[in-house]
Amino acid sequence: MTAAPTRTGGPGDLAGLRHLAVTILDANWEDDHTVPSRTLYPHQWSWDSAFIAVGLAHVRPERAWQELASLFRAQWADGRVPHIVFNPALRVGAYFPGPDLWRSTDAQGAPAVHTSGLVQPPVHALAALLAYRRAPEPVGLAALHQLYPALVAQQRYLADRRDVAGDGLVCIVHPWESGLDNSPAWDDPMAAVPAAASVMRAYRRHDTAHADAAHRPTDLDYARYLAIVAAYRDRGYDDRGLADRHPFLVECPLFNAAFGAAEHALAEIAALIGADPGPHRARAAQITEALVRRLYDPATGTFQPGDVRAGRLLGARTVLGLTPLILPDLPTRQADTLVVEARSARFGVAARMDRPLPSHDRTAPDFEPLRYWRGPSWLNIGWLVRRGLLAHGHPELAAGLRRSMIGLVAGAGCHEYFHPDTGAGLGSAAFGWTAALVLDLLADEE
């Protein structure tokens, strides 16, 4: 297959940017879904598919619905949507950790296809609603009718099985579930996870064959990641008793903001298809209240992850703290302090941005501009923060962030992530959600 191009003529070449993005999405299309990249990520990823569906709705709307439908065909009987759906046509060992580590088909209620046993932030209802708005046609309305029960089941799984503390918020059981895999936010709870050297000796990483090892999580990180997976897998991915036995239990601001935003989106979808939006609105309000009560830190004016095992908030100032802005009912007090945080030297959001939005506080001593999620800029997080800024009445800041993100792709191509100072492309080239979300940004008026 011919490799997709990676650059355009510059920030003013909007037609070139659009052509680049469409070419990448077409090149990454795999029968009924889009792979994030042909090298490092050759299977289907959960929240990648959601973001990709938003972009596809602008240019290939039928594929947007196929993208979401194919993902939800792998939904488990308990409602969980796995964070990876493995392509059986690929050779064993094409990705690490692969089906041989997850052994999902041994678990009760798992689908026949091999998947992981973890989940990712539930941005899918929002993606479905936006895909419908981007292409409001009878096919889209029929797709909403079909997806709605599965989206409701996804939310029910999270509410019923993952509210470990009984406080109305969802727990993640692995850093990978946050989407921000090795963020500094997880350093403290990860340090308490035993890392058995035998776990890593039994497997071989593939990510460092496609990306610089200095840009990726360390081997110690991976040993701990696999130890957590093994602990969850060996209990059949059963969420009962997590509080007593599981080594990693954290309430993540992004995950719970997405959980609440999904209920807002489901209320709109319900109204479109003739269902009752009232219960969704009520649950959305409850989630926002719990998020503010449990994870907002008035001392820093931002949201922090909560370590359920340690019973405390985790102190790293990461971009996770800004993402509750996507909640339209976030109280004014918290929204205002998040805007202050976004505009601070830590993140630098402005009407005219000199540098892209980083994933971690750029003034912190552990800021790493090259290492995965410990500093680099990612389009999906910027896209979410921009939506939040628009929702809370800051169009000038949203416009600055939009121009910054478009400038990243114009300068470096559709990379997985970007250097937070220079804007250089990092990680996989020809990356799916970057291509999809730049299409969405180009389509939006400032």
Describe it.
The chain has one domain: Glycosyltransferase. Helix 3 (61-72) packs parallel to helix 6, helix 5 crosses helix 13 and helix 13 (253-273) packs antiparallel against helix 14. 47% of the residues lie in helices and 5% in strands. The strands form five sheets. It has a three-stranded antiparallel β-sheet. The protein is mainly alpha-helical and 446 residues long. The chain has helices at residues 14-27, 46-59, 61-72, 99-102, 124-134, 138-161, 175-178, 187-191, 197-201, 207-210, 219-233, 242-245, 253-273, 278-295, 332-343, 379-391, 395-412, 432-443; strands at residues 29-30, 33-34, 44-45, 84-85, 250-251, 296-297, 302-303, 306-307, 312-313, 417-418, 425-426. Keywords: Glycosidase, Hydrolase. InterPro entries: 6-hairpin_glycosidase_sf (IPR008928), 6hp_glycosidase-like_sf (IPR012341), Glycoside_hydrolase_63 (IPR004888), MGH1-like_GH (IPR054491).
What is this structure, in a nutshell?
The chain has helices at residues 14-27, 46-59, 61-72, 99-102, 124-134, 138-161, 175-178, 187-191, 197-201, 207-210, 219-233, 242-245, 253-273, 278-295, 332-343, 379-391, 395-412, 432-443, and strands at 29-30, 33-34, 44-45, 84-85, 250-251, 296-297, 302-303, 306-307, 312-313, 417-418, 425-426. It has 446 residues and is mainly alpha-helical.
Provide keyphrases for this structure.
446 residues; mainly alpha; two-stranded antiparallel sheet; single chain; globular; Glycosyltransferase; three-stranded antiparallel beta sheet; disordered N terminus
